[in-house]
Amino acid sequence: MPKRALIDQRPWLLASVAAAIAFYFLRDNPIGGLYLILLKGAGVGLLAVYAFYRTKGLDGALIVLVLSLASAADMALEIDFTIGGGLFLASHLVALGLYLRNRRESTSASQKLLALALAISAPAISWLLSGDPMIALYAVSLGAMAAAAWMSRFPRYRVGIGAVLFVVSDWLIFSAMGPLDLAPLPEILIWPLYYAGMLMIATGVVQTLRGEQPAK
Q1: Is the pTM of this model over 0.70?
Q2: Arithmetic mean of pLDDT, 62-84
Q3: Exposure check for the chain: N or C terminus, fewer CB within 10 A?
């Protein structure tokens, strides 16, 4: 990212990180209420603002929509798990479309096998952890999104790993629904893994698209 662009857009990223950290440490605050819901949504919501100002065209609009839906899902989960899950499903499907539009021209056999492993393991492990077939059905979109991210032309060590972190954070959520007790890991790790994954996805996609825009 050019130095001037970094200076101009750093406030959105810094504000996003600050909101995410603040939510992590204030989430058990007894005051609670609407301000915590908004603070939670601001973490990824500000990444959507960052993407909005830094990208153009259809791919730019898609990453903004992915992040906006995820932000809405973060807030909705505090009210209704099903609504939040539905919004995340929509976010995964939009992300899947973005990544399929941006497939990598050539991939090794090992990378294809890893993508296949993500697509299969996401719903399989989600079902084993939760014991809920509806969770496994949701996780089909999760696995497809992660596999497509890994096979996309976006940087694997940012976007691909970011998608994997998202999958792992969801697995920790689902573990609390089934017989496997992983406490205290879910309480400690779900939010950091999820937010780190979204931050990596957002910056990886945005900087790739930004590099293709004509210089002003």
Answers
A1: yes
A2: 97
A3: C
